[in-house]
Write a structure and sequence with these properties.
Shape: elongated
Oligomer: single chain
Number of helices: 7
Largest sheet: 5 strands, antiparallel
Distance between the termini: 121 Å
Structural class: alpha+beta
CATH topology of the largest domain: Helix Hairpins
CATH class of the largest domain: Mainly Alpha
Number of strands: 8
Strand order of the largest sheet: 4-3-2-1-5
Helix content: 40-55%
Length: 271
């Protein structure tokens, strides 16, 4: 019975000693989480007001929130009376073990930081990377999400994207459309060139500076090939590409200019 009373007294002493600290720590934790939420919301408002890159805002918000919460937890543990030196040592060892286990994930995290800092592309750009191409839908901490022209979602890890070859089709305001047209050896080269010049001059989307380029590029096996290079605004690239091919075909047909195509002659012999 005396042992029970002794334990009860010890428990009561512990409650008296730690209850105020625990209560205060709980209050600080709740208030701290509320303050962190207010800070991150204010930071987002400021970044949006200053027109910070939209792809950078969620990353900075998440990073800031995580760092502040870690600092808050350590402060709360100190208030309760736990020795934080050993706690931080254990936390560091655990972090090292987790880091080694998640080395690939950490590489993707580092790649995401590099992408957001150096900005080789941004949300809305059309890029080609790791054998895939599409419009950048979002840049996340670990991945970049693309939307392909046929509405597929492609998720690319940031590590290989940040260190590998990448083509950004949206960086420059102007792009060059490269086309090739072949005519028969019996057709008039000057007439074909005149048709090409007329088609180019009639399309207002084709820029005059740099000037369009039209020249005979090759005497192929069955055709005389023209190289046509046209400069357009980036948004007009595919429209000019497809429209020019169709218009040239119609004008060649109307002008009696042939476009050679592979043919096979089959000879039969009576046995």
């Amino acid at each position: 019975m005396d042992d029970v009373n002794g334990y009860a007294e010890q428990a009561l002493e512990l409650v008296k000693a730690y209850a105020p600290k625990a209560l205060m720590a709980l209050v600080v934790l709740i208030l701290g989480l509320w303050v962190i939420g207010m800070i991150t919301k204010a930071m987002v408002r400021v970044m949006r007001k200053r027109e910070v890159d939209p792809s950078l805002i969620p990353f900075l918000k998440g990073l800031t929130s995580t760092l502040l919460k870690v600092m808050l937890v350590i402060s709360v543990i100190q208030m309760v009376g736990v020795e934080t030196t050993s706690f931080i040592a254990v936390l560091g060892a655990a972090g090292l073990a987790v880091g080694m286990a998640l080395s690939g994930t950490l590489q993707n995290f580092a790649g995401g930081v590099m992408i957001l800092v150096f900005k080789p592309y941004k949300v809305g750009d059309y890029i080609e990377a790791q054998g895939h191409s599409g419009t950048v839908n979002s840049i996340q901490i670990f991945n970049t999400v693309l939307k392909t022209p046929d509405n597929k979602t492609v998720i690319l890890p940031n590590a290989p994207v940040s260190t590998g070859a990448l083509v950004n089709y949206s960086t420059e305001a102007q792009r060059r459309v490269d086309l090739a047209f072949g005519i028969g050896y019996g057709d008039d080269i000057d007439k074909a060139r005149s048709v090409l010049d007329e088609v180019i001059a009639a399309d207002q989307r084709i820029l005059k500076d740099p000037a369009p380029f039209v020249a005979v590029s090759e005497l192929a096996d069955s055709s005389v090939n023209f190289a046509v290079r046209l400069w357009v605004n980036a948004g007009d690239y595919w429209g000019v590409h497809f429209d020019t091919i169709e218009t040239v075909k119609k004008r060649f047909d109307a002008g009696g200019i042939s476009i050679p195509f592979p043919q096979m002659d089959v000879h039969t012999h009576a046995s």
